[in-house]
Amino acid sequence: MPFRPRPLFPPVSRASPEGVVAVGGRPDPETLKEAYSRGIFP
Q1: CA 14 to CA 39: how far, in whole Å?
Q2: Are 38 and 10 in contact (CB under 8 A)?
Q3: How far apart are CA 11 and CA 39, in angstroms?
Q4: Are 33 and 5 in contact (CB under 8 A)?
Q5: Taking 70 as the threshold, does the pLDDT of residue 7 lie above it?
Q6: 20 to 30 A Cα–Cα from 37, which one of 2, 5, 9, 12?
Q7: Residues 35, 3: Cα–Cα separation, whole Å
Q8: Is the pTM higher than 0.70?
């Protein structure tokens, strides 16, 4: 399996007033699992 750096998401506490934490990226399974594990939902 190739090395895949862990996506870096900002802390949820830094979300915008609308709840936006990050924009862009690839919605592949690994990225989504990482986001969900941090309480970030698409």
Answers
A1: 13
A2: no
A3: 9
A4: no
A5: no
A6: 2
A7: 19
A8: no
